[in-house]
Amino acid sequence: MFDTVPNLQCGHHVLKLDVPRIMAIVNVTPDSFSDGGRLANTESAVAHALKLVEQGADMLDIGGESTRPDAAPVSLQEELDRVVPVIEALSTRCSVPISIDTSKPEVMRAAVAAGAVFINDVAALRHEGAMAAAAELGVPVCLMHMPGNPRTMQKEVHYDDVLVQVRQFLTERMFACEMAGISKKNLVIDPGFGFGKHLEHNLALLANLAYFCELGVPVLAGVSRKSMIGQITGRGIDARVSGSAAAAMLAAQNGAGIIRVHDVAETKDVLAVLAAVQAAKRKDHSVKAKPAIQWPED
Ligand code: YH5
Question: Rounded to the nearest whole angstrom, what is the distance from the C-alpha of residue 119 to the centroid of ligand 1?
């Protein structure tokens, strides 16, 4: 599909995917920034978002609902009250496209009216009315793989072949979008790291991310600070920056067009290192890497 460079038209912004782009996470949940009430919460979320743009974020992902299995569900009004003021404030003050992280059609509509130009839906438009809302709004959409819903997804995790099954799911959702009148040019796909997956599945997805690029739309990867990084490094959530940066580099190397992260400055650096090394890669030599230590039987 992409002979040249895939571009995502996000409102008046063009997100050029010639190099991997950084989507910065902005959680607008009461405990994420402050406990000083709604206005203080909005102001600190906006300040945090602007700082992430300064660090080099290529887009902002604004979310008002936690997707953790144990999180209390957030009412529609509460989610609107959290995200709409933040999007309104940012859309006039910031230079990068704003994504709304939601599964609710009403939130999609209000967010786009407030200035969001991208929909990030972990439920891949399966909620009632979400597909129609996205089609009507005409902005790009990220379809993520998640078996069941956030409360059930980690209950019975089993795949015969995680790559094949996740790709099958995403192919079906892409087809449903096409049927609803959403152009393939407006689609992004995401294997959904940590959503209904164990470590072995997350590793298989990261190692073989290029398998999803074959579907001909940009691939988004979100590994930042997730438990897979904790399981590999043995570190708690606040000490997963290096592990997350390494995983971001691997995702980019394996074809991700957009990387969803908390730590923008650190991710920017690892992607710069990757780009510099990739630019130096010689096309006329096929140099095979050898393991650092070779055992006698090798
Ligand atoms: C994603 O992968 N993830 S919310 C648990 C953590 C840390 C982070 C235990 N929304 C994705 O970020 N949207 C989320 O530590 C997403 N892709 C897309 N497209 C979960 C999250 C997180 C969960």
Answer: 15
Phi, psi of 261 (to 5 degrees): -140, 160
Q: Does ligand 1 have an atom closer than 6 angstroms to the CB of 120? A: yes
Asked if 242 contacts 203 with a C-beta cutoff of 8 angstroms, the reply is no
Closest-CA residue, ligand 1 atom 22, reads 226
Q: Which CATH superfamily is domain 7-282 in?
A: Dihydropteroate synthase-like (3.20.20.20)
**pLDDT per position as a tens digit, 177-202:** 999 999 999 999 999 999 999 999 99
Could you give the dihedral angle defined by the CA atoms of residues 279, 186, 119 and 181, in that order, rounded to the nearest 10 degrees? Answer: -170
Using one digit for the tens of pLDDT, what is the confidence trace for 33-89?
A: 556 678 778 999 999 999 999 999 999 999 999 887 788 889 999 999 999 999 999
Contact call for residues 33 and 26 (beta carbons, < 8 A)? no
Rounded to whole angstroms, what are the CA distances from 218 to 16, 141, 161, 236?
11, 11, 22, 31
Smallest CA-to-CA distance from 190 within 104, 112, 138, 255 is with 255
How far apart CA 54 and CA 47 sit, in angstroms, is: 11
User: CA 116 to CA 94: how far, in whole Å?
Assistant: 12
The type of residue at 96 is: V
- Report the SS3 class of residue 152: coil
Question: Among the atoms of ligand 1, which is closest to the Cα of residue 67?
Answer: 4
Lowest mean pLDDT among 55-64, 146-155, 219-228, 285-294: 285-294
Measured in angstroms, how far is the CA atom of residue 1 from the centroid of ligand 1?
A: 28
